[in-house]
Amino acid sequence: MTDMLEQGASWLDDQRHQHMTRSVSYTRGASTVAVQATVGRTEFEQADEYGIVHKTESRDYLIRTADLVHDGQATLPKRGDQIRETDGTITIVYEVLSPGDEPVFRYSDPYRKALRIHTKHIATETNP
Predict the structure, then answer these.
(1) What is this structure's pTM?
(2) Domain count, the chain
(3) Beta partners for 55?
(4) Per-residue pLDDT tens for 24-83?
(5) Contacts (Cβ under 8 Å, ≥6 apart) of 7
(6) What is the span of the domain harbouring residue 115?
């Protein structure tokens, strides 16, 4: 018997991937892979040692788990990887990063079909 919820989640992920993505480059060291990603955001709240709550917003990229392949191997996001998003003559560079001890990614569905990768803006480049 098939899992109807998993089938529904797959269908929704296919729709997101088909209609709500843009091409970005995912880089780890010298290896770069082009992937389709949906842009999102996550708000984090952390209390410091004085009890003051600090809010941080992350730019997130939702990428199919199966699409993140480096050097022929499926991989998961790591702190320090970079995502480059080009818009016309501008390339915006984001580092895979999250505040404090938060993980740098989480699965966006119970079937682990897509990753929600947390990033921070580190550079803006002008393309010739």
Answers:
(1) 0.90
(2) 1
(3) 45
(4) 999 999 999 999 999 999 998 888 889 898 888 999 999 999 999 988 899 999 999 999
(5) none
(6) 4-126
